[in-house]
Amino acid sequence: MTSTDIDLRHGDRIQVLPGKARSAHTLQPLKTGLYIEVSSIRPDPLDGTVEVTGFLLTQRGAFRSGLPTRTVILTSDAYTTPIRVGDRVRYRATGETPTVTAIHEDDNGYATAAVRFPSGAHGTGYRLVDLEHLARPTTSPAPDLAAVVTACAGLHCHQPATNIVLWWPRSGGQQTKALCASDTDQYLAMLNGNPARVIELADGTHDCLADNSATQVATCQHCGHLIYLYRALLDHAEPWRDGEYDETGRCGPGEDRARIPVAHDPAITIAARDAALATRPCGASSGPHNAADCPATRS
Length: 299
Fold this sequence. Notes:
By secondary structure, the protein is mainly beta. The protein has helices at about 180-190, 250-260, 270-280, and strands spanning about 15, 20-25, 35-45, 50-55, 70-75, 90, 100-105, 110-115, 120-125, 130-135, 165, 175-180, 195-200, 205-210, 215-220, 225-230, 240.
């Protein structure tokens, strides 16, 4: 065995297996397993092992308090296969076998995957710890030209949502659900006469705010930050904003590059969204946020 048999990269998330991995400090086999995000890799050409340092993770995939690290000595059978973009995986909760199209990490360390199911439907927010690696393509995946979509909130539905159903219960307040066409019809029937409005989702929408305002969320193709489509601006020519106090909808980073006025515009394909995320000054792995909350520019 050589260290080239060990396929690990910076940022990979792995489970280190007890009895097979060794402590770099004591050189003894680990008695208990652990989860890490790889931060350093040092191959040993003499015995074919690799010394790996990583940030310790909880079993649910979050960073541990204080960001402690652990260094272990690995052979090719001493860790689980890390999940990467392009891999086919099994979602343990349902047994479905989608393909990973993107991986995002939030400030707490939780890593989630966007996936494409064999049916062509897309889903987001699948934690890596809930996925089991099945296969990796032998060539790098081609740019994903599939559309960015919002997952339908219907029970056991993996179709993309096409509408937001906004309705007003008789008890007061308002409620919203993002649903596919079929679930929209069923949901309207269940409302049993309660006042409701159906709002068509705009191209590029991948989420809705959780405040039941029917505000759509997308990623700007020019700056890679989150942008918002408020209900009051649905009929405007340039409706997307980077926050509730944005009155113009103009994209500062986009204008800096183009040297002409540029409006926020949603990325409508996965390839365009991922390319936009890579242009952010904070990088693609810093988690979704709008321009005002960008860690690279926030004072």
